[in-house]
Amino acid sequence: MYGGSDRPTRVLTSLQALIGSGRLGGTGFVSILPVDQGIEHSAGASFAPNPAYFDPENIVRLAVEGGCNAVASTLGVLGAVARKYAHRIPFLLKFNHNEFISYPNTYDQIRFASVRQAFDMGAMGVGAT
Asked: Checking CA distances to 63, which of 17, 51, 93, 110 falls within 20 to 30 Å?
């Protein structure tokens, strides 16, 4: 798919791992479970209806059992389970966040992690908003 690309080999390897994993692997479609709202809206607001998801392992397990191509989340969530799951499902680390916990609400994307931290935990990619 990206054979004619000038992207580095490691990037192409990561893209292939992402596109080739999960139930949709090899179809050209991807399903990514994004769970990063705990920082922006508070974990209580995000997970109170489903308290099992306060546990980072349950978030990643949901993505694995659901056949997702990847799970996208925060440094804390992915870092807590990286040794156990980074080889089972591609990780996408979201390294910046806004927050709506303080009042008055302001828009300020704060960096919570680095690309190096994503690499060190075995993430296949990073995301920013």
From this structure: 110
Instruction: Give the range of the structural domain holding residue 103, as residue numbers without chain letter.
Output: 9-127
What whole-number distance in Å separates Cα of residue 58 and Cα of residue 64? 10
CATH number at residue 90: 3.20.20.70
Are 18 and 125 in contact by the 8 Å Cβ rule? The answer is yes
Residue 117 burial (C-beta neighbours within 10 Å; 0-12, 13-18, 19+): middle
Please report the sign of the dihedral spanned by the C-alpha atoms of residue 63, residue 38, residue 16, residue 80.
negative
Tally the domains of the chain. Answer: 1
Mean pLDDT score of the chain, rounded to an integer?
85
User: The tokens 């996408």 sit on which residue?
Assistant: 92
The whole model's pTM is what? 0.83
Question: pLDDT tens-digit profile of 39-61?
Answer: 554 555 555 677 787 889 999 99
Domain presence at residue 2: no
